[in-house]
Amino acid sequence: MSTTDTTAHGPPPRRDAGPEEAVDTAIDEACRALHLPTIRSRVQEMGADAVRQRSSYKDFLADLLEAECAEERAVGCGRGVVTRATASASQGERCGLRSVFPPV
To answer: I need a surface site. Which of 65, 76, 89, 96 has the fewest CB within 10 A?
Structure first.
């Protein structure tokens, strides 16, 4: 008979890191694995802004994703490269997250 593991998925936090550092490490590693360089480089800054503005979690997440999409469009358009954002959406709907998550 097998048992179901109810613990969180993913690697355990580093033992030498406190909770904050473990979260930062997890975010950094996930952004590297998912190829999200803009989120990786701006998450601290945008997180601090979200706290100051008392943004909801969804607003913070939408802002991060919009920043990633905007950078990907800018880089892709500048190089004439087809990116995830340009390949999967028409010109008018690329990363239009605010239409999905309207301001509260």
So the answer is: 96
